[in-house]
Design a protein that fits this description.
The protein has one domain: Alpha-Beta Barrel (TIM Barrel). Helices cover about 45% and strands about 10% of the residues. The longest helix is centred in the middle third of the chain and has 29 residues, at about 120-150. It is globular and about 55 Å long. It is an alpha/beta fold. Strand 6 (about 265-270), helix 12 and strand 7 (about 295-300) form a beta-alpha-beta unit. The chain is built from 14 helices and eight strands. Strands 1-8-7-6-5-4-3-2 form an eight-stranded parallel sheet, sandwiched between helices.
Length: about 375
């Protein structure tokens, strides 16, 4: 289980330096050249749907690969690595294991997702994915931390889901939602309990494109803390569009902070999105209003299918952009999202090294 001094230790570290987050799990996994058979292994050999794009499944079918990814990110300077659990809820995993009713003229709706939530196979799978992913990351955090003499941390990655609570997919029925708040809450509670069981230090609710989905994740965390009499620090990170809005829910970054300030997050920030240059004005807006630490782990620029990683920026370019953000006093945590390999994270670690962290405003 997580150590009791984690929040204090993290808070102290964040006053001393900019902490480094890891990079892109998916981008890095692709460099291993895995096949569909590798992803399935013997355990899921007969599954009806392809699993190669289900990166989370690799924590149990190819744990040596996921462990090596964590090892590489920690070795190049990451203080915090995320668990391989971005889509490790029963709701998200159903995409890979349950027939889509729309293929037979039906639709996904709350009744469909209630059956998902009551599916023993999917619940057991979600629990296993989160526990084992957390244990894998914990193993390498402790090993590299012990070898280097600097403590490393495990952040339980909680992704945004593939469904939205804010928007209807039915143009003829604007009140329709495919899933309910309570259903999303239940899925997140199972994931959070499993991440805590596996030994996470932090819960990272990330790539928020729908603030109501994130609200369900935050409520789930608070309810689990109350039920278990155990608490972990929370980091919240949104993906924004060019106007600084949280995608589907269209909530600007100041409103995003106001909506989650009551959670008292360890940090709030931006990830994925537009690349570090285009994120800058939105990060400045968030840093101006948030009374907590600021995190930023952007994509390596915009998508580019001709680039080796699928994104524009190479490690030196990420170094220069992140050094500029850090030097402007905007960062407490820095890392990379899509397109950021261990080489990119090594460059980001060099970029922020020795630069003082942003001073967190204190409410009067």
């Amino acid at each position: 289980m997580p150590q009791a001094d984690t929040p204090t230790a993290l808070q102290q570290a964040l006053t001393e330096r900019i902490l480094v987050l890891d990079g892109a799990m998916g981008t890095t996994i692709r460099s291993y050249g895995l096949s569909e058979g590798d992803a399935r292994s013997s355990r899921f050999a007969s599954n009806d749907k392809d699993l190669l794009n289900n990166g989370d499944i690799l924590s149990i079918t190819r744990p040596e690969v996921i462990g090596d990814v964590h090892k590489r990110f920690f070795e190049v300077g990451a203080d915090i690595c995320e668990t391989n659990t971005f889509s490790a809820t029963s709701l998200a995993q159903s995409e890979f294991f349950v027939a889509d009713p729309r293929e037979r003229g039906g639709r996904k709706d709350p009744e469909f997702y209630q059956n998902i939530l009551e599916n023993p196979f999917l619940n057991d799978l979600a629990w296993e994915l989160n526990v084992e992913s957390a244990r894998l990351c914990r193993k390498w955090a402790d090993a590299i931390g012990s070898d280097s003499g600097r403590r490393r941390y495990v952040a339980g990655a909680i992704g945004p889901l593939t469904v939205s609570l804010s928007n209807s997919p039915d143009a003829d029925d604007h009140g329709f939602r495919v899933v309910t708040f309570d259903q999303v809450l239940a899925a997140y509670k199972l994931q959070i309990r499993a991440l805590m069981e596996g030994g996470c230090d932090i819960l990272l609710i990330e790539t928020i494109f729908d603030s109501l989905n994130a609200k369900a994740a935050a409520v789930a965390a608070l309810e689990v803390f109350d039920e278990t009499q155990s608490q972990l620090p929370i980091i919240l990170s949104a993906a924004v569009g060019r106007g600084g809005e949280t995608m589907i829910s269209a909530q600007k970054v100041e409103a995003f902070w106001n909506a989650f300030a009551h959670v008292k997050p360890l940090a709030i920030g931006l990830n994925c999105s537009l690349g570090p240059d285009l994120l800058r004005p939105h990060l400045e807006e968030l840093a101006a209003c948030a009374c907590t630490c600021i995190s930023c782990y952007p994509n390596a620029g915009l998508p580019n299918p001709l680039a080796p990683t699928g994104f524009d920026l190479n490690p030196q370019q990420m170094h220069d952009f992140m050094a500029d953000l850090a030097g402007s006093g905007l960062l407490n945590l820095a890392g990379g999202c899509c397109g950021n390999t261990p080489e990119h994270v090594a460059a980001i670690a060099r970029a922020v090294n020795g630069i003082p962290p942003r001073q967190v405003p204190v409410l009067g």
